[in-house]
Write a structure and sequence with these properties.
Layout: H1 3-33, H2 36-47, H3 50-67, H4 70-77, H5 86-105, H6 108-129, H7 133-139, E1 143-146, H8 148-157, H9 162-166, E2 174-178, H10 183-193, H11 196-214, H12 219-252, H13 259-269, H14 271-293, H15 298-313, H16 315-332, H17 338-365, H18 371-388, H19 391-400, H20 443-459, H21 465-482
Antiparallel strand pairs: 1-2
Length: about 475
């Protein structure tokens, strides 16, 4: 390639890696912040965390005592002289409420209230961000998480009583998520994010595909570095999440006792980001594997030799297998949308093109590829390695030292001849049996046979020219020393 084209390819690979980094954040925000079902699922995991339940129970008890004069209510209930005990009783009841609140939040009823409140708040948030008039008029551009039902349920469960729970004001237990002065900024962000996940995801793989298309010679290097770029992008997101979590918790949470719950909430809320990053890393690993498989390294060549019969003889089945894998991925993925479908389609197309190129490469390298040739080549290499290791000579030497016990066959006297082994009589006219003399292989013939074998291994591509020359020199030197 020309210098300009090489720079273009490198720039495209870097650009694709940057787009992959940004696409992870875009997908996470789209699914976590703009998808109600995903947020409700996340909120359910939040309430199941011990640290978050503790912080939430403390908040609910504080709201209960801030909105209702519990001491006065108890004083009205207590008879006679016991009214003086209203203050200590209210303090003790607060301790009981704090301890019992966590138990209450573990129940399915309380968690149901929590998820319903989160669903309502998120639906209201989406309506406000989409600038729906009825939502803006109803909420005045503000989004609140209403935990009133959860607060009332807590008051009943800890023994304060039905009458006291009913005296809670309507705004008790409400947490403002979006204020009216933040409305315009939030709407602009939502417009910018909406659809960016789809665009960034498609652009990532299209940029990588363009870089591979522009490469002339050594395309496997572009594929390899594209995979490395995807892996680097996924790891960078995980590192950025960790750093951002520490900064956000320190800046937004001023109460030291609430920081463990905030850290747990951040970890759960961004767990989807880690999942998306892991998927990007896995896809990058497949790119790296594909780049290595197409490389001219000896190990990659041997793998191509092994799979050549499958690629050349069963290509339709290979493509069908790829289609089944990607189809299974789509069917088992939660929330199949346009972004996931199109992205999967692009990646599947790149995989099919890669298989086509690999098939063409194996046809050029191994035009006569067959399963018999693959297994025969493997057997020959194993036997060659066995002989070259000297193990065969040691086995023969040890075998020659083994003395088998002499077996004497029963004999019987013959009337007309000498007794022979096995009880058979030799006829007088029968010549004595003589063992055929064993002829040893001439040293020169053995050397020529080994050299001829090396030539065959080189012709088959098992040995390179350098390996052939080294083995030839070793055989000649060894035979000269023996002479």
């Amino acid at each position: 390639m020309s210098k300009a084209r090489r720079r273009t390819v490198k720039g495209l690979v870097i650009l694709g890696s940057l787009l992959a980094f940004l696409s992870v954040f875009a997908i996470w925000i789209e699914r976590q912040a703009l998808n109600t079902d995903d947020w409700v699922s996340t909120s359910g995991r939040l309430i199941q965390n011990q640290k978050i339940r503790t912080a939430l129970s403390n908040y609910l008890v504080d709201q209960l005592y801030e909105n209702v004069n519990v001491e006065k209510e108890l004083e009205d209930i207590l008879p006679g002289d016991t009214k003086d005990l209203a203050g200590p009783a209210a303090g003790g009841l607060r301790q009981v409420a704090g301890t019992g609140a966590e138990k209450v939040l573990e129940t399915g009823t309380a968690q149901g209230f929590w998820e319903d409140a989160n669903r309502t708040a998120h639906e209201q948030l989406i309506a406000v961000l989409e600038n729906k008039k009825e939502a803006v008029e109803t909420a005045n551009g503000e989004v609140t998480l209403n935990l009133g039902s959860l607060l009332t349920n807590l008051a009943k469960q800890v023994g304060i009583g039905q009458n006291l729970a009913e005296k809670l004001p309507p705004d008790a237990g409400q947490i403002k998520i979006l204020k009216s002065d933040q409305l315009k900024t939030a709407q602009n962000i939502a417009v910018a994010i909406k659809g960016s996940a789809l665009i960034l995801s498609l652009l990532t793989f299209l940029v990588f595909a363009l870089a591979m298309y522009l490469t002339r010679g050594g395309r496997f290097i572009t594929v390899l570095f594209s995979g490395i770029g995807l892996i680097a992008a996924g790891l960078a997101v995980i590192i950025a999440r960790h750093i951002a979590g520490g900064i956000i918790v320190d800046q937004l949470v001023k109460v030291q006792s609430a920081k463990p719950a905030a850290e747990a909430a951040w970890g759960i809320a961004t767990s989807l980001m880690v999942s998306i990053s892991s998927t990007v890393i896995v896809v990058g690993a497949f790119f790296v594997a594909a780049g290595w498989l197409a490389s001219p390294t000896k190990a990659a060549r041997e793998v191509r030799r092994a799979i050549a019969p499958v690629l050349q003889g069963y290509a339709p089945w290979v493509y069908a297998g790829v289609a089944v894998v990607f189809g299974f991925y789509l069917l088992t993925s939660s929330g199949i949308g346009l972004r996931l479908f199109l992205t999967t389609l692009v990646v599947a197309g790149m995989a099919a093109f890669g298989i086509h190129e690999l098939r063409r490469q194996t046809q050029e390298e191994f035009p006569d590829a067959s399963f018999a040739g693959v297994f025969g080549s493997t057997r020959d290499r194993m036997m060659s390695a066995y002989r070259d290791s000297g193990l065969s000579e040691r086995v023969s030497e040890q075998t020659s030292k083994i003395r088998l016990p002499e077996v004497r066959m029963p004999e019987r006297e013959g009337d007309e001849g000498e007794p022979v082994a096995g009880g058979r009589e030799r006829r007088p006219d029968e010549a004595p049996t003589q063992e055929a003399p064993t002829q040893a292989l001439d040293a020169e013939d053995a050397r020529l046979a080994r050299l001829e074998r090396l030539g065959e291994l080189r012709d088959k591509g098992i040995l390179t020219d350098q390996e052939f020359a080294a083995e030839k020199a070793r055989i000649l030197n060894r035979d000269d020393q023996s002479a």
